[in-house]
Amino acid sequence: MRFLLTALLLIETVFVSAQPALNPDTVKAGPFDMGKMWTFDTPPQEYFQKTYGFTPDQKWFDEVRLASLRFADYCSASFVSANGLVMTNHHCARESGTGVQRKGEDLNHTGFFAKTFAEERKVPNLYVDQLLKLEDITTRVQATMANGKSDAEQLQLREREFAAIKQEYGNQPDWKGLELQTITFYNGGRYALYGFKRYNDVRLVLMPELQLGFFGGDPDNFTYPRYALDFSFFRVYDNGKPLKTSHYFKFNPNGINENEPVFVTGNPGSTERLKTVAELEFDRDLKMPYILQLLRNRAEALQVYNTKVKNDSIQNEIFSLENSLKAYGGQLDGLRDPYLMARKAAFEQQFKAEAQRLEGSRGQSKLSTGSGRSLSEGAKAPVSRFDINLKLWDNLAANVSELRKYYNDNTYLSPSELARGDLLVFAHLLVTYAEVARQNPGRAEQLRELLETPKLTDRGLEEAYLAAHLSEAQQALGNDDPYIKAALNGKAPKEAAAYLMNNTKLNDQGYINDLITKGPAAISGDNDPLLALARISVPRYQRAASAVQQINRQQTVLRSNLGRLLYEVYGTAIPPDATFSLRINDGVVKGFPYNGTVAPYQTTFAGLYDRYYSFQGKFPWSLPKRWLNPPAELLRQPMCFVSTNDIIGGNSGSPLINKNREAVGLAFDGNMESLPGSFIFVPDKNRTVSVHTGAIVAAMRYIYKANRLVIELVGK
Q1: Which has the least CB within 10 A, 96, 175, 285, 426?
Q2: Mean of the pLDDT values across residues 490-500?
Q3: Is there a single domain that holds both residue 179 and residue 314?
Q4: pLDDT digit string, tens, across residues 286-295
Q5: 353 and 297 inside one domain
Q6: pTM (predicted TM-score)
Q7: How do beta strands 241-242 and 638-643 pair?
Q8: What pLDDT band is residue 15 in, cutting at 50, 70 and 90?
């Protein structure tokens, strides 16, 4: 085995050394490295005309905006009929759907279809938001921030101004009754106020079985060709009746052709494409490896636990962790790709050069040198005249260097239950309480309300989380670290975790009550092993957290200034990072080379059955009984397709529409090559994976017999 490993390493070394060396000086930034997530505040009419040969007017964009929805606070959706029918993904609906199942039902196993309006089930606490009003508030917010004399004061003034704006607009007739939200673009380069109409009466109409909605499971996640029916339907009710709306996307089950332009409208959650190279290197070296390690170890612990309990909620948590694990893994691969990082560096140099030229053309501007100051020292220039700070990149890099110093203590010693387990975090809270009680008895009384002994989900799961934490901390902090020495005491992490769990009394509420009654001195002097660990970790974490908080405040203001500079230089030619606010992005239906062959632009139901039989019907490629004898006509129907659109988490449930504002698809995933999209968009490799609207209609017609929905959507 050792010989084989050596041989493989040698082969890899020869292969790598045979590749042409990357010359960063020859790498150029791509025209869409910052993405295509255009805002409805400044819709890209001229760009669409130039690129696709059609010029949508303002009414086109208004209708698209009004047909688009935010599905709770985590997904996207859209109206697809005049009777308030809402389309979103199965994976967005999974918790909502199972939340309305009744005794004896298993909707993950059977799926759900309401044959009549009366059978549509209201989902408690579910809502959808429709964006009705938009207002630019940039000048007002930036003028207020300019009065701040420090980073912290600028941010405080910004939050106060946000609150004042919402209160003021909330009393205006056109905005009254709307859900108001301030939106930050370009990290603070622009600001907007959005007003949403919130619909709280949302009812489940149709949800496929989990085996179809999540067909292929984690192995097929972020891959293509793909065969998943990741769709669901809900309906909005108004005063107890289906909502009547003229703003919706008509269904077109035959509307996809290769190289046809398509548009995604939805709420992309978060991207970080404006981050500097120094910040991305921090993510690559520290943040992403830690997150991946954390997710992997916790998912494994939950899998072991769920073999005993077989709980749907735990299984959904595992699905979520595995999804995140694959997503962050793809991001880290992208950050470790020298070519992609060279493209980011090339854009940074290009941006600096453009800013330098702009500064030179102004002639009289003073350069800002203070960290986090958006104006030159003491100046109060008009907000429309932004003083360009060409040292922003240096200041951001210096802050990142400081963050690296505090990263381990701030991360591995933080009071996070996912990272350190319930009991060790509870020990952290007890030690903090004792310290506060000595210094500020009034504040201690507030903390005391939180001192309720955690109810452990499972002792074995708690021990597994603790063992994982000790292993992760040992690797990061080193064996000579005082915390690691005290925690392990010469044992391996797994053995040490077992010892700590066997000897702690922090799961005994009576014992805790006695400690608190005796006072801070008793807590500080108690020899419980978890309390002993917390007494080492708490002061270190507090010092690190305080430093990181201050650095992050500086970073927020610096990033805001960098965003203002980006907008000053490029205007709306570069769209802002995603902020879970409504966007529209463009692309074309297009396959791509993969695995030595070519991925077709669309797949068919025949491929679904090929996967089923190829894996002998084993989960996650299993199928419900009613799917096992399909009519021949179904096999020919399209199922999924790919396009070059720019999406990220939060876009789940976004409709794909054509130039006629017809729904032709439903976005639910990306390919593996799309995962670096958090920090760079590479349209020649990136693909959005969608359910074909023809597949949705075919499934309802041939399998679910949902004729009333087919008629509602396509009229026959």
Answers
A1: 285
A2: 97
A3: no
A4: 999 999 999 9
A5: yes
A6: 0.89
A7: unpaired
A8: very low
Which residue reads 């001195």 in tokens? Answer: 521
Q: Span 63-74, mean pLDDT?
A: 98
DSSP annotation of 101: P
Query: What is the per-residue pLDDT for 171?
Result: 96
Q: Is the peptide bond before 338 cis (omega within 30 degrees of 0)?
A: no
pLDDT at 359: 82
Token reading at 291: 């997150």
Within a domain: 709: yes
Structural domain tally of the chain? 3
- Claim to verify: residue 362 and residue 480 sit in the same structural domain: yes
Query: In terms of residues, how long is the chain?
Result: 716
Are residue 388 and residue 435 in the same domain, yes or no? yes
* Mean pLDDT value across residues 458-483: 96
Same domain, 560 and 531: yes
Return phi, psi of residue 85, to 5°.
Answer: -70, 135
Last residue of a domain, one of 157, 173, 199: 199
End-to-end CA gap in the chain: 64
List, for residues 416-425, the tens digit of each pLDDT value.
999 999 999 9
DSSP code string of 537-598: HHHHHHHHHHHHHHHHHHHHHHHHHHHHHHHHHHGGGSPPPP-SS-EEEEEEB--EEETTEE
Q: What is the pLDDT of residues 497-548, one digit of tens each?
A: 999 999 999 988 889 889 888 888 899 999 999 999 999 999 999 999 999 9
Rounded Cα–Cα distance for residues 254 and 696 (Å): 11
Backbone angle region of 156, left / alpha / beta, with phi > 0 → left and psi within -120 to 50 → alpha: alpha
Do 78 and 86 meet the contact criterion of CB atoms below 8 Å apart? yes
Whether residues 227 and 93 fall in one domain: yes
Same domain as 412, residue 351: yes
Over 90: is that where the pLDDT of 2 sits?
A: no
* Residue 112: closest CA among 134, 87, 136, 93: 93
Q: Is 659 strand, coil or helix?
A: coil
DSSP run (H or E) holding 523? helix 520-525
Mean pLDDT of the region 151-162: 95
Asked whether residue 260 is assigned to any structural domain, the reply reads no
Domain boundary among 544, 560, 576: 576
Percent with pLDDT over 70 in the chain: 93
Amino acid 363: pLDDT: 54
**Do 217 and 279 lie in a common domain?**
no
Ramachandran region of residue 101, left (φ > 0), alpha (ψ -120 to 50) or beta? Answer: beta
Cα dihedral 13, 16, 18, 20 sign: negative
Q: Which domain holds residue 240?
A: 67-120+209-254+584-714
**Amino acid letter, 89:** N
